[in-house]
Write a structure and sequence with these properties.
Keywords: Amino-acid biosynthesis, Glycosidase, Hydrolase, Methionine biosynthesis
CATH class: Alpha Beta
Domain Nucleoside phosphorylase: 2-228
Strand content: 25-35%
Strand order of the largest sheet: 5-9-8-6-10
Pathway: Amino-acid biosynthesis; L-methionine biosynthesis via salvage pathway; S-methyl-5-thio-alpha-D-ribose 1-phosphate from S-methyl-5'-thioadenosine (hydrolase route): step 1/2
Distance between the termini: 10 Å
EC number: 3.2.2.9
Number of helices: 6
CATH topology: Rossmann fold
Shape: globular
InterPro entries: MTA_SAH_Nsdase, Nucleoside_phosphorylase_d, Nucleoside_phosphorylase_sf
Length: 230
């Protein structure tokens, strides 16, 4: 079974609507829609915004649904000038940018007492998604890149530059690395897919509401193709 997580309604509602005879279970305040899309067993859930919600949701998918893989779909701000609004980023790795124990001698983003702080996406899912993107016929560019996550909406040039310089991030959002973290600890293959809604700079507060729907729609188009191919 494939677990699909989005942070907001706009990122998962159309998938729920396509599901055949879903069984809906409310767990920890989240509605888990279990059913069939395109002949494939899936469970779709809106986790809510932020790393804690995302992490809790992923653990429920592991414990209650025993999912074979987790895909996180949604929108993000671009940190890479080559990646424009509505383009799509397929995660190669994900890292929590707001993990900061530098006062104790750690580098930014490093989680104390863990062997891994940068979580690698499943390569088979990456290749499957690249193939699916071509088949979906999207009119945007598709990139592989690093997703960085924190409980912050990035909207200044200074913060954007810092995340790019400190982490080499290609896009910034608020859930992906937490999902990656939990999936990795449970040995569940994962992938984060992000459509760009803004440039994570001084115009982000204007661009985000303007392009959010279009970016999320691109993500869903791609995800539907992935479900066919998975």
């Amino acid at each position: 079974m494939l677990g699909i997580i989005g942070a907001m309604d706009i990122e998962v509602d159309s998938l729920k609507n396509e599901m055949e005879n879903p069984a809906i279970n409310k767990i920890a305040g989240m509605d888990f829609y279990e059913g069939v899309i395109g002949g494939k067993d899936v469970v779709v859930v809106k986790c809510g915004i932020g790393k804690v919600n995302a992490a809790m949701c992923t653990q429920i998918l592991a414990d209650r649904y025993n999912v074979d893989a987790v895909i996180n779909t949604g929108v993000a701000g671009s940190l890479n000038n080559d990646i424009d609004i509505c383009d799509i980023v397929i995660s190669t790795v994900a890292q929590e940018h707001d993990m900061d124990v530098t006062a104790l001698g750690y580098e930014k983003g490093i989680i104390p007492d863990m062997d891994v702080s940068i979580f690698e996406a499943d390569r088979k899912l990456v290749e499957l998604t690249k193939k699916s993107a071509k088949e979906a016929g999207l009119d945007v560019k598709v990139f592989e890149g690093k997703v960085v996550s924190g409980d912050q909406f990035i909207s200044t040039h200074e913060k954007k530059k810092s995340l790019k310089n400190s982490f080499g991030g290609d896009c910034a959002e608020m859930e992906g690395a937490a999902i990656a973290h939990v999936a990795s600890l449970n040995n569940i293959p994962f992938l984060v897919i992000r459509a760009i809604s803004d440039k994570a700079d001084g115009g982000a507060h204007m661009d985000y509401p303007t392009f959010e729907k279009k970016a999320a729609a691109n993500s869903i188009l791609l995800l539907n193709e992935i479900i066919k191919n998975v």
